[in-house]
Amino acid sequence: MDNLFIKKVPLYFETNESQLVVGDSFEILTKMKLESVDMIFADPPYFLSNDGITCKGGKMVSVNKGSWDKLSESGTGVEEKHRFNRKWIRLCKKVLKPNGTIWISGTLHNIYSIGMALEQEGFKIINNITWQKTNPPPNLACRCFTHSTETILWARKNDKKSRHFFNYQKMKETNDGKQMKDVWTGSLTKPSEKKEGKHPTQKPEYLLERIIIAATEEGQVILDPFCGSGTTGVEAVRYGRKFIGIDVSEEYMEISKKRLEKVTNDK
């Protein structure tokens, strides 16, 4: 795969179709070539790690995901979160091609900041996708409705000359010949996928499959700046796209490497 970094960056893993980099996304993104990627999928920190509890497999467990999901103790909450979102979105915009698009997944904890940050950093939101989960964990406190959805924002650069790609016919074909709506219904990540990925916020493969087929063509480059255990990369390689993944955790990068090796060998 062509090197899309203008400054030397040690690659954790590389094939003809994918590259993995361990490090801080803020730093790594500044070393990438300008306007070099066709699509970005990002599942940034939701900042949910607040020492609370949730339900997993019928058991009460901590909601804490890791240090990457916490605001600094000296931070000011909302303001710190929004500065974080504006900064990484600004850096992503620089490496995105003029006709490229960005997809960002989030919950009520961060998605409103992300929506505003996108507009402030010069993006135009194309769609607000609601992912409705058919099997969400129950609400243990019983003081509000069960949280059963996540939002995925799809955006392009706010430029009149920007012409983003949308595989309308394929989406219609996979939706029984009807226009696909912006509410997507499906289950949480399957146990077999969780066993391979082992990430607390791991997205199901079918979700990334739809996004990648809808917004890219074969041979194009997809970037995930918070790639976790590599689901974006798995689906990108599976469908003939090229992939760059960045993550601060070497533990999860090793998992991504193994998953990418497997999907490459299975092709």
What composes the largest sheet? 9 strands, mixed
Question: Judging by the overall fold, what is the CATH architecture?
Answer: 3-Layer(aba) Sandwich
Which regions contain 5 or more consecutive residues with pLDDT less than 50?
49-64
In whole angstroms, the N-to-C terminal distance is 17 Å
* CATH class membership: Alpha Beta
Q: Indicate the overall shape.
A: globular
The helix count comes to 8
What name goes with the CATH superfamily? Vaccinia Virus protein VP39
Class inferred from helices and paired strands: alpha/beta
Summarize this structure as a short list of keywords or feature phrases.
11 strands; 267 residues; globular; two-stranded antiparallel ribbon; alpha/beta
Description:
This protein has 267 residues and is of the alpha/beta class. It has one domain (13-266): Rossmann fold (3-Layer(aba) Sandwich). It has helices at 25-29, 78-95, 111-120, 168-173, 191-197, 205-215, 231-238, 250-266; strands at 13-14, 18-22, 37-42, 53-56, 59-62, 96-106, 123-133, 149-157, 183-186, 221-224, 242-247. The longest helix is centred in the N-terminal third of the chain and has 18 residues, at 78-95.
